[in-house]
Automatic annotation (TrEMBL):
It is found in: Membrane. The chain crosses the membrane at residues 21-39, 45-63, 83-101, 113-139, 151-175, 187-208, 228-246, 252-275. The keyword Transmembrane helix applies. It is a multi-pass membrane protein. One of its GO terms (cellular component) is plasma membrane. The lineage of its organism: Eukaryota, Viridiplantae, Streptophyta, Embryophyta, Tracheophyta. GO terms for biological process: G protein-coupled receptor signaling pathway. It holds the Pfam family Tmemb_40. Belongs to the UPF0359 family. This is Protein CANDIDATE G-PROTEIN COUPLED RECEPTOR 2-like.
Amino acid sequence: MIDGKMRSVESIVAELPPSSSAGAVVGAGGGGSWLYGWLVECHGLWHNVLMIVPSALFVVYLASQAKRSFWKVSNGRSHVVTALYAILWLVSFFNLAWSSLQAWECAPAKQFLWSVLSLFTTSGMLFLEVSLIAFLLRGNHASGREALTQTFLISAVAVGLDMFLKGIYLFGFGIQLFDVSTNGSQWALWVVHKLLLTGVYGLIFFMYRSRWREKLPARPAFQNYISIMFCLNATALLACALAAHGAGFGSWLYNITVISYHAIYLPLLYVTFLADFFQEDDLHLENVYYSEMKDAGFFDADWE
């Protein structure tokens, strides 16, 4: 009789679905399972940490300086700095969300949301890049409402065309531009994209080291910014070219450049273009730049 009961219990257990035996464990530790999937799965722990931590720390830093910065912006006369600061806040939130939701890239159900978030995040950062390039190329005339309008108009047109082309790839042809785990036709677009940026940064980089350097702002921080962005985009171009030919090293190197870009670009922009403005008490940013250029002798030719 006892053997019969034992056999009946065993038959009941055998008929249970596989998930039932682990149901209690998952129910008890569901929060830990979700956290593990968010941090470890898809790209791995270190990739996610290197993406999330710098983005979060920069937003925290902006928040800690918000009261002082808002006061300086509201009492300042630089339309360029005011607009740049506002866009920086917006893009920083997008970048933090993008960095925190890396697990969406590996979730088929989130593919559309991941593409939209990636498109807006990268376009926002590209808008800042193009705006600052236009700002530098305007040289000594890069101030005032007219300069702001012209600079942002150029940026809006360039980024609008870029978003339109990427939208055709993403939603027209179904090519996952932001899924670097696949060696598909997305690399052709990234090669062109990085080639253009590398060419522009390379042009400015060599202008600073040529007889045309007086046409650009002479602040050393600007030259450092251009040098860093030129090296980063040149490396990304090489990585895309290798990945387009099926080299696994190219995909790995491109991932490194993506992590570096999203981790350091916004802080680099802040340090280069905004930090001095918020630290100056008596002089505005454009007056500081003009004084440094005058001391460096960049206007001596005007008196000869």
